[in-house]
Amino acid sequence: MSQAGDNGNFLKLLADVVRAEGWTGLWRGNTANVIRVIPNKGVLMMCSDMYKAGVAAALPTINGASVSSIAGGLAGVTAVICTYPLELARTRMAYRIQDGSTQYNNLISTFRAVIASDGLLGLYSGVWATLLGVLPFEGIKFGLYDILKSALPRNSLDKLPPIWTLVAGALSGAIAHFLTYPLDTVRRRMQVSGAVGAAKYSNIFNCLQTIIKKEGWTALFYGLAPTMLRAIPGLGIHMFVYEIMKIALGLDN
């Protein structure tokens, strides 16, 4: 909500949602998010590992964290292209923006409303802003993750205990979020652009200029605190589960 322009105290925004819609309002759009996150993270992690070999072969002069960073950025782009309509639906459902008389109150009605107003290509509205943000975000996250893993203590078998991957994932994700957060704000604004009740932006640069002109530079960081509160444990658990599954499947090396 803050990123869409509804700036305010985090706790006050929570209270406003609960007052208007009850506690279930805090999970608005979560069904679409869960449906999105399964293929998105699956494609992201699979492609990250797959792309490492290709990047290393194409760029033999680099190694380590640089390879992971480039592969992670490309994997992020691939995951967005494959799952973006679900990302758009999740965002519109979360803000409950209305398009005429149609509420975005579930996944099917959201798709119908978007297609009715903007056609099939409307499902990719704002995709360029998302790609612009995901490339550096995933690149920074995966690169830092490799650097932190190499710096953390290892066990007697020279293996990094999986619990430390939680720490590495949380720290790398937090830093990546902070450094790329303005791009994430533009992405959110572009995803709701043109819907009734939301500002209309013609392109990414128009969106950025309008935000700065009307709301100031600080508006690019609206919602940073709750994003960090969600992302730090979320990304830590994400990487922890990923490493645990690799060990369970015999893919750890």
UniProtKB/TrEMBL annotation:
It comes from the Eukaryota. Keywords: Membrane, Repeat, Transmembrane, Transmembrane helix, Transport. The chain crosses the membrane at residues 67-86, 121-143, 163-183. Solcar repeats lie at residues 1-54, 63-151, 160-248. It is found in: Membrane. InterPro entries: MCP, MCP_dom_sf, MCP_transmembrane. The keyword Transmembrane helix applies. Its main location: membrane. Pfam families: Mito_carr. GO terms for cellular component: membrane. It is a multi-pass membrane protein. GO terms for biological process: transmembrane transport. Belongs to the mitochondrial carrier (TC 2.A.29) family. PANTHER family: SOLUTE CARRIER FAMILY 25. This is Ef-hand domain-containing protein. It comes from Chrysochromulina tobinii. The lineage of its organism: Eukaryota, Haptista, Haptophyta, Prymnesiophyceae, Prymnesiales.
